[in-house]
Amino acid sequence: MLRFLSVRTFASLLYAVSACGSHEIRHDDGPAKSHRAEDPTPDKPITAPTPGSLYDAYIGHEVDAPQRIDRYELTRDAKRVVESALSFAMTNDADALLHLATPDATWGLPDRAKRGARPLDQNWVDELMAGLRGAADRFARRSPYRCAVLSPAASGFVRSGAEPMWCYYARPDNTEHLVFELVMRDDRARVQYLGFFVDEPMQRIVVADGDVPPDHPPLKRRNLEMTRRNIPAADPRLQQMRLRQKQAATASDGGDNERGRAPTEPPGPLGRIAPGRPTRATAPVPRTPPPSATRSGPGE
∠ CA 76-77-80 to the nearest 5 degrees? Predict the structure, then answer.
C-alpha cells in the first residue's frame, strides 16, 4: 500500500511539473533581452563604413588627449564633445565613451522627452555603439550640424550646469537626426543623452502625445527705454531724469536763478550774458561817477 501511494504521488508531481511548463508566458514583443553584467557579450565584427558617410568621417577622426577633454566647457566646446563621442563610438572605445558620459546618462530615440530611454552603462554600451555606427553610416559626411540657439542669459544657465544644451546632426530630407544632450557636470562638459534610430525610418516620425521640454527656460524681454512707466521709482536713472527736467523747467521761467544764467552754472563773478549773444560772456561794466561830481564850476 505504501509503495502504491509513493508511485501515485510521484506521478502526480510529474504531471504538475509538466503542466506548469506548458503554460509559458509570452509577449507580443517576444522574449525580453537580458542585459545582466554576467552575461557574455558576443564579439561582433565592426562593419566597414560607407565612403563619404559620417561614420567614415569619424572613424579616423583624431580626438584630443584625455586631459584636454576633461577641460571641455559649454557652450564653447559643444562641437568637440559631440565629435569625441562619435569618434569613440565609431572606433568601439567603450571606456572612453563612458568616461565622456555622465553616470546617469541614457540613450534611445531622437526625442527630447526621452521616451523609452535606456541607461548608458557597461551593460548597454556595446549595443549603443553598434546602433550609433549604423545610424551614422546613413548620414553624409557634411550633414548639417546645429545647436539650439541660446540667449546670453540661457548660455549662463548652461555654463553653470543648471540647464542642458541640445545639438544634433540632421539628414537633408529631415527624416532622421542624431541628437546629443550636453551638460556641465563636475566642471566639465559631458554627454547626458544620445538619441538616434537603430533602423532607418521610412518617413518622418512625429510624436503627437506628451509635452516636449523646452531648450531653455523662457525669458521675458524687458523694454530698456528710460520712461516713467518701466523704471522703478528708486532707480537712480529716474532720479537723474527728474532732476534734469526740473532744472530745465527752472531755467525756462527764471525761478530762483538769475535771469540769463544757466541752471547748472555755479555762482561767481563770471559776468552777465550779453544781449543777443547768449554764448558769450562779457566782463562786468565798471561804474563811473556822475557828471556833476567830475565837472568843475565857472567860479573855480
Answer: 155
> Measuring CA to CA, which residue among 173, 94, 166, 105 is closest to residue 140?
173
Q: Does residue 252 sit within a domain?
A: no
Kindly report, residue by residue over 153-206, the tens digit of the pLDDT: 888 999 989 899 999 999 888 888 999 999 999 889 999 999 999 888 876 666
In whole angstroms, what is the distance from residue 86 CA to residue 56 CA?
Answer: 11
Q: Which long-range contacts (CB under 8 A, 24 or more apart) does 153-160 make?
A: 153/219, 154/215, 154/216, 154/217, 154/219, 155/75, 157/216, 157/217, 158/74, 158/75, 158/184, 158/216, 159/73, 159/74, 159/75, 159/184, 160/184
What's the total number of domains in the chain? 1
Consecutive sets of 10 residues in the chain, 300 residues long: mean pLDDT of each?
Answer: 46 44 39 39 66 88 88 92 92 91 92 87 90 91 89 88 92 87 93 91 62 53 51 66 82 55 51 52 59 54
The CATH number of residue 117's host domain is 3.10.450
Q: What pTM was estimated for this model as a whole?
A: 0.55
Across the strands, what pairs with 108? 195
Determine the distance from the C-alpha atom of residue 297 to the mean position of all C-alpha atoms in its chain, rounded to a whole number. 101
Residue 158 domain flag: yes
| Residue 236 domain-assigned (yes or no) | no
- Quickly count: other Cβ atoms within 10 Å of residue 138's Cβ: 20
Give residue 165's pLDDT. 93
User: What whole-number distance in Å separates Cα of residue 296 and Cα of residue 95?
Assistant: 119
Pairing mode, if any, of strands 188-195 and 101-108?
Answer: parallel
Range of the domain at 116: 50-195
Q: What is the pLDDT of residues 198-228, one digit of tens each?
A: 888 876 666 555 555 555 555 555 554 545 5
Q: Give me the residue label for grid cell 558769450.
A: 280
SS3 121: coil
